[in-house]
Design goal:
10 helices; Pantoate--beta-alanine Ligase, Chain: A,domain 2; three-stranded antiparallel sheet; alpha/beta
Length: 280
Amino acid sequence: MKTVTTIKELKQIIKNHKKENRTIGFVPTMGYLHEGHLSLMKKAREENDLLVVSIFVNPLQFGENEDFDSYPRNLERDAILTKEEGADYLFAPSADEMYPHEPSISMKAVKRTNVLCGKSRPGHFDGVAAVLTKLFHLVQPDRAYFGMKDAQQVAVISGLIEDFHFPVELVPVETVREPDGLAKSSRNVYLLKEEREQAPELYKALNEGAGLLASGHSPEHAADFVKKRIEDRTTGEIDYVEVYSYPDLQPLQEAKGTIILAAAVKFSKARLIDNITLQL
C-alpha cells in the first residue's frame, strides 16, 4: 500500500490506472477506523481491481461548537488497518492541501437535509457535498462505499451523484454492530461505563418500533413507542426519533414503501445515531 498526501501525486496515480481500465473502489473516511469502515473496505476490495481509501477530517462539515478539534485521530494505526484490508492507496491530505484558499464556489445541499441529524447541524451536508465532489473528481471511482449507519448521509450522497451525473455507483453497506447490537462508531469511546451498558437499548427500541410499522401501526405511534422505550431504559437525552420515506426523507402518514426509522440520543460526551430501513 502506498500513502499519498498530495493531490498532484494522486491525480498522476489515478491517470495511470485509468489508462489500464482498472476499476476503482473508493472508501472515503474521516479516520479513527473501526470494523464498520473495514467492512466497507472488504466489500470494495472484493468488487474492484483497485481499492483507494481516504482519511481526511473535513473541517467544512463541522459546525460551531462541534468536535472538530477533539475528533479522534490516529493516522499511524489507521494506515496499518487500511493496509491489512488490502488497500492499494491511502490518500491522507492535510486541510491546506484540500482547501489551499477560500473557495470561489460554494455548495449547498437543499433536499434531504432539514430532518434527522441535518436539522440540528446546519451546513453539515454542504461540507459533505463539497468534500465528496473534490474526492470524486480526484479519485474517479467506479464505486463508492458508505455505511448505512449514517443513512441520511447516504441519501444526500445519492442526490449528489444523481444531480451532478457523477459516473459513480453508490454502494450502501449494512451497519456493523457490536455483539450486543450497538452500532460501531468512532464516538463510542466517549461513552461512560454506565452509558455503554445502556447504549444497546437504542437498537433494541428501533427493532421493536420497526416491528410495529411492519404490523400496520402508524409512523407516529411507532416513533412515540421508540421514544418511550429509550427514555425508560437509558439516561440519554433524545435528540429525535423519526420515520420518513427513504431515500427522499419525506414525512409519512402511513407506513408503506421504503421507510427509515431513525433515532439520535445524546449521552454525556457522545451523541449516538442509529436507524433501521424496511420495505413495506
